Structures
1.
Amino acid sequence: MLNIEEANRKSKEAVDGVLKSYSEVAKSWQAIATETGEFSRKYMQDATSYFEQLMGVRTIEAALELQTNFAKSSYETAVAQTSKLTELYSELGKTLVKPLEAAASQSTSVFTKTTL
């Protein structure tokens, strides 16, 4: 027989778990936003420095070398940033799924007990 009180208690626990995880999700989004902001700030500083150096170049060869170094550095930085963001989004996904997994397992256990 279905125990309504137990089902209500399990349901309340699931809702509490979801609400508790809200702060973890907010922290994950904040970490992503902070990382993206820091990357943008650093890139703008690097680009400004590059253009300042480019203004002082006297030969085409020096300009090409400077441009090549800047492009290589920008590419390496972008790849590293992509790796960081991939990891942060992966953690966010795990955080989002955690309360749903708990709720599903609790619901399954309640209904398994009542049907057996």
2.
Amino acid sequence: MELSVAKAIVMAKDEDPGMLKWFEQAAGYAVFPRVGKGGIGIGGARGKGLLIQGDRTLGRVTLTQVTVGFQLGGQVYAEYIFFRDQTALEDFQRGNFELGAQVSAVAVTAGASADADYSKGVAVFTIAEGGLMYEASVGGQKFNYKDLD
């Protein structure tokens, strides 16, 4: 998992060098190198990742999402969640964390990170497999966090 996360971080910085400031300035961040999403009518997404603060891995995270509405097909993407401050990071670690329906992800492309900002202490970015732009619907995602200890 650590190698996959490291590769996903490099991929984000390669796609948009402005992503470097997000990794450097956030209180912490979760990286999901491979989120699979798909459905016909009812859909879902699932991915595994790591929660990182500075150069230290804090724990493992599982992402799940169930969606209802028109949808057909599938997508694989990397997801990055940045926490503005220690409070937002600790809220995530407590395990009662869900991205609200109003939260949207920014597709990582050259320069995209420059206009992005935090919403309620959190910012979310995605990169579709192969680096293609993908506007992921991330509202309703739930996270299960486990400390490494």
